[in-house]
Amino acid sequence: MRVRKFFTVMSRPRVFVPAGLIIVLAIAFVAIWFQPQKLFIDDKVNEALPTASSSPTSPGRGETTSSTPPPPIDLATGTFTSLDHTTSGTVRVVELADGTRVVRLEDFETENGPDLFVYLSTTEVGGSEQSFDDDFVNLGRLKGNIGNQNYVVPREVDLGKYASVVIWCDRFDSGFGVAPV
User: Fold this and answer.
1) What phi and psi, each to the nearest 5 degrees, are found at residue 42?
2) Distance of CA 135 to the CA centre of its chain
3) pLDDT reported for residue 18
4) CB neighbours of 130 closer than 8 A, spacing ≥ 6?
5) Which is nearest to 171 in space by CA: 32, 2, 20?
6) Would the pLDDT of 25 be above 70?
7) pLDDT digits (tens, 9 = 90+) for 60-89
């Protein structure tokens, strides 16, 4: 009897090992794909408003050199509204003295998430959320879910074509927040 009981107890780990492995793999998949830890982690960014570098010139008679470039020109501004996640802050589209255009997020805050990007979208604020990624320009990964940050607009982009800046989760096709420009 004791021998049979010993073998019965020893055979149980064979069932637990595959079940345990499945549980560990499921937890790893959720942690990698959904990244729930991001709900508890804030990525703060505080970039300064960019300025164009001024090229040094030799002054003529009676002229002085100015090492301070002119301030950026505001082309558009808007306020974020929430879509699927609480989002707030201001967006500015500015042009630097050298012609570089920048989308700037100021006093920005949204919930953190996986695979977040900043898009210029042709869809207007109030349009169908699923259309924000139909016709867009990807300005890059969101640098942080809190703070001031800058995204350079490629020179070939016609800003007149775009109606909004959207924070987009590419993994889940979900808009976090949108602002008109």
Assistant:
1) -100, 135
2) 18
3) 67
4) 173
5) 32
6) no
7) 555 555 578 899 999 999 999 999 999 999
Confidence at 41, pLDDT banded by 50, 70, 90 = confident
Tokens of 119: 């898009």
Note whether 35 and 114 are within 8 A (CB): yes
Helices (H), 54-108: none
pLDDT computed for residue 68 by the predictor: 81
DSSP 160-172: GG--EEEEEETTT
Strand segments, DSSP code E, in 57-121 are 73-79, 81-82, 87-95, 101-110, 116-121
Q: Provide the 8-state DSSP code for 23.
A: H
- 42-50+68-180: which CATH topology? Immunoglobulin-like (2.60.40)
* Domains of the chain by residue range: 2-33, 42-50+68-180
Q: Give the angle subtended at the CA of 163 by the CAs of 90 and 83, to the nearest 5°.
A: 60
pTM of the model: 0.75
Write the DSSP assignment of 121-144 as a string of letters: ESSPTTS-GGGTTTSEEEEEE---
Neighbours of 74 (CB within 10 A): 11
